Amino acid sequence: MSVSQLINDERGPSDYSQLFHLTKCQLGMNFSTANLLDDELSPQDKHLIQEICEIALAHALGNGNEYVDYLQSFTRMCKEFLKEQMYLERTGQYRYQSAVEAFEKTLSSPDEAKQYLQALLMSQAFWRNHRQIIYFFRDQFLAGAPENGRVLEVPSGTGFFLSDFMRKMKHWEGLSLDLSSVAIEFAGMTHALLNAPDATFQNKNLFDLSEGEPFDRIICGELIEHVNHPDEVLRILKQHLTTNGQVFITTAIWAASTDHVYLFRNAEDVRKLLREEFQIVDELVLPIDRSVSIDSEKNAMNYAAILMR
Amino acid sequence: MNDKIKNEILQLFRSQINEPDFEITDEMILTDVVSSSLKMLKIIASIEKCYGVTISEEQIFELETFSDLFAYIASQYVEEESL
């Protein structure tokens, strides 16, 4: 039975572990995703993967064929990653040097943006490092938050982080910003699917956010590698943060994507930039290839940190 | 392909997997020796740089054994030389 047959069966997927199993089989058919689930998965991993598969299935309105589109978008993104990473290894730079050019060449159409978000959502389940970042977010950032406050997520991306935050911190006021209207719609839907308390979703540039009441928490996932001047992003985030507020930030080091333009060669490059505006309270450095050192350079890594003024 | 180039390529593999004495035979599967696709990309980029050949991203993961890799490089290398 295929994933789409399972879901399209009029009885529906009564057993979600079967959905996980079939999803794994589907990903196993392509070289770029075949090894992603080779590791021993912890019960926590299995739970998160299942949760995200269920969110994707809900986004697909329970339609099996559309759910398979999510997997195909993810497979395409993984193939694209290897292609772009090869370009990076060959040339020592990302393909595009300008954020505007990268956006126009890769994500300017609504279809491309939608596929990108579908892939990003699935990556949160199937890329080990993305799972580790979610655990870090939950254990170190979310767990220390007070009962009330204001939280900003920029960019919205899939909406998973803000929704995850607000469904646990039910008395918080949330605002989500993204330049892409497709992302705003996607994030709003994730929020609703996770039954998170109401938040505001705005198709707006962070730099156009008016100076109002500052935020106690800011979530900034995978933004600074997409812009030409990440220092300016950090400066504006600091302006919108309360005195005792915290920022959760993630980025990619020497990890290519068609829309990555700012190249960090090692973790120290990231730290140096972050320390221009913030103190690093905690951090997580995750090489994609676990045999390389976190202090090495020119190795693909994910980076996450919690920052304060 | 001459033995010198073959040995140099094997050295690139050994160095990436941090096993300088690792015994590699022609029939060994590439991904059994280098399980990380990222490491494989680094090795291929080094091979391209050293020998002026190009191995497409699609081709990288279609080459199964060391013998396949050597044959592919040799075919490209000869073409380059004959230009």
Structural summary, described in words:
Chain A folds into two domains: 3-126, no CATH class; 128-308, Vaccinia Virus protein VP39 (Rossmann fold). Helices cover 46% and strands 18% of the residues of chain A. Chain A is built from eleven helices and seven strands. In chain A, α8 (160-168) links the parallel β1 (148-153) and β2. The longest helix of chain A has 28 residues, at 64-91. With 83 residues, chain B is mostly helical. Chain B contains five helices and no strands. Chain B has helices at residues 3-16, 30-33, 37-51, 57-60, 66-82. In chain B, α1 (3-16) runs antiparallel to α3. The longest helix of chain B is centred in the last third of the chain and has 17 residues, at 66-82. The interface between A and B is medium-sized, with 15 and 15 residues.
Strand content of chain B: under 5%
Under CATH, the topology of the largest domain in chain A can be stated as Rossmann fold
The largest pleated sheet of chain B is described as:
none
Structural class of chain A: alpha/beta
User: In this structure, how is the largest beta sheet of chain A organized?
Assistant: 7 strands, mixed
Question: How many β strands of chain A by DSSP?
Answer: 7
